[in-house]
Write a structure and sequence with these properties.
The structure is a homodimer of 199-residue chains.
Chain A: H1 5-28, H2 35-41, H3 46-52, H4 56-60, H5 64-72, H6 85-105, H7 107-119, H8 124-144, H9 149-169, H10 174-192
Chain A binds a DNA duplex (30 and 30 nucleotides) through helix 1, helix 2 and helix 3.
Chain lengths: 199, 199
DNA sequence: ATACCTTATGGTACTCAGTACCAGTAACTT
DNA sequence: AAGTTACTGGTACTGAGTACCATAAGGTAT
């Protein structure tokens, strides 16, 4: 059986903690909420909170794994050994959309997430590491699809640049963000001239 | 007068804290050292420590400002309005070397810094934000030198990619790192073919 | 069902990071 | 010399994060 009773309980507890935390953060802000309050609202012990999340900040980034999964699912899909940088970029482009799509699954929470990160400097560092993790995953996928190391890393970082500029231009709305990032990709291609990356 | 007594005292206190902290970190590791111990060794009050550094991790990244200064000094140097991506990259390349050069000013401490970050997960996030800050500064410099927004951001992120792959290949030694990053730049140019970025 | 093992829970008690507040002192100002 | 400003370090507090342990509940045998 795939989901044992324990498994289901674990999932429920985890979700309860996440929901309790985001509810409290939404009304009182991140720093004003204590772990004890989150635990009480989620009806678990304080100790249990730290079993599910290494620290208080980590709850905010609970969705990171979903985004990584979305990317890593592309490993091995449609392999193209020795692909060019242009080809790698044209694969990275929809992959970025796929990551953004995770945000649209619960747009309300995602907007809140963006607000929390923007308002609390103590979350900035962790948010940056999340982008590193996604960039690394992107590079790994491209490598698995047949890109050379340098090509994969380079394309992943160009995708990161597009994502960052996209988020800068668009608001926190995930759908708008996806479009803006995509536009940035288009601009990159136009920037170097058609086919410039394909040499 | 450029350096008042207060100014000099401040500098000395700051340096004393940094030195005390790194000495203790070197022998006992980051997490085993308490702020109180650092303050005692630096002969300042515990309260004073937090006046100079927002938190314990921040001491580890005390040199970040030097690297940023190194970059920002290039703002406005040799302006070239409307520069191409290839031109932006050829400017980013020596700029990365300049940043690495800061590490060679005190190679011993830099190696220790790298070791501390590598060994302590609690420092990973902050280290990532440092790279963001440097990348942003790089983009700002290129923009100030006349690059379009997209060109500047893109070139800065490509430089980031070169830096990351360089550090991955070279050890923690700053000189070797500079060379490896430079080699990555060369590889990027070769990757897209000569002149591919200049369209 | 019974007994047994394993895993998850939540409570207690502790350390230490980080903050608020305040009184004392040293540096600049006139 | 007197007054103002900037810096210090001490006290006292909150809250994050950890170690430990007794208890309960899920899983697994017989």
């Amino acid at each position: 059986m795939p989901t044992s009773i324990r498994e289901r309980k674990r999932r429920r507890a985890r979700e309860a903690i996440i929901k309790a935390a985001f509810d409290l953060f939404a009304t009182h802000g991140f720093s004003a909420v204590t772990v004890t309050e989150i635990a009480e609202r989620a009806e678990v012990g304080r100790t249990t909170f730290f079993r599910y999340f290494g620290d208080k900040r980590e709850v905010v980034f609970a969705d990171e794994q979903h985004m990584l999964d979305e990317l890593l699912a592309l490993e091995g899909v449609d392999p193209l050994p020795g692909m060019t940088l242009a080809q790698a970029l044209s694969r990275a482009r929809p992959a970025v959309r796929a990551v953004c799509a995770v945000g649209t699954r619960d747009a309300g929470r995602y907007v809140l997430y963006e607000r929390l990160v923007a308002d609390n400097p103590e979350l900035h560092d962790r948010a940056e590491r999340k982008l590193l993790a996604l960039t690394d995953a992107m590079a790994r996928v491209l490598r698995a699809q047949g890109a050379a190391d340098a090509t994969a890393v380079l394309a992943a970082h160009i995708a990161l640049a597009c994502f960052r500029t996209g988020r800068l231009l668009a608001g926190p709305d995930p759908a708008a963000l996806a479009d803006a990032a995509d536009a940035a990709f288009a601009e990159v291609e136009a920037l170097a001239g058609a086919g410039a990356f394909s040499r």
